[in-house]
Amino acid sequence: MINAKRIVWLDILRVFSAFAIVSLHVSSYYLENSIPFGSASWCLTDLYLAFTRFAVPVFVMMSGVFFLNPEKEITLGNIFKKYVFRMLTVWLGWAALRTLIVNIGVGGDPMEKWAMDFFVSLQWYWFLPMIMGLYIFTPLLRPLVATGTRTLLVYFMVISLFLATVCPVLEEVEKALLPNWLPISSFTNLIKIPCLIFGAHFVFGYYVCKFGIGRRAKKWLYAGAWASLLLMTAGTYAYFNVRPNPFYKYATFGASITPFAFLLGAGLFVWVKEHLEKVHFFDKAVSLIQHL
User: Fold this and answer.
1) Is 72 left (phi over 0), alpha (psi -120 to 50) or beta?
2) In a domain, 60, yes or no
3) For 113-130, what is each residue's pLDDT tens digit?
4) Which single residue of 69, 96, 137, 160 could bond 200 by disulfide (Cβ 3.0 to 4.6 Å)?
């Protein structure tokens, strides 16, 4: 069940995911620039990087737990005033700060370069507009989850996950194998317009807390999470070994929007809930976790 009280296991998962986000960027930098390719250190960093891919999907799942909870009062007004506009300010502010940093000391007339770097910086922080989009669509999703129909929620997650993660991977494979003939892209471009990116992740978090997952489904999910970890690790190795191939870059190394990342994040989300939900933490420990 979901209630208004603090959910300690989600607080723990939030802290863990925030650490993983930082680790993801640090490990990817060292993987590309500092460690000899194929060495033992490189392979361990590759495995660690693959594991940290859970972070973005899990953050979205946690958001879904709270924003889709029918007991939480959410109006169109506070969606924009309290969440969207605040996040928009953060997005533009960080993009401007990054633009300033990368252009310090640049001579000549930098205006054109500054403008280009600013738009590049906006893409760096792609997860902020993604979250804003989910918040904007929240009033439309809440009636869906309020019905309490498990079948309807599963149907939505399957459709959203297919359009948002499977279709882009198929498109990248198509570009690599059939660069002059793009039937998949032509079709998916038509049907992806109504697709809510990360919508399945958003609903999944609420679904797990509301209905739970059966034992058999849980075993399959854990198996998929382990397989995804290994596939992302192998895919990163393949990407560095055969850099011109765009499939490896998109499907494994360079993206959190993949079926692999979803399965890894979903598996960890369910595992943490299962093992920590009923643990009774000391008050001081709870207070410390909530302030992190």
Assistant:
1) beta
2) yes
3) 777 788 788 878 878 888
4) 160
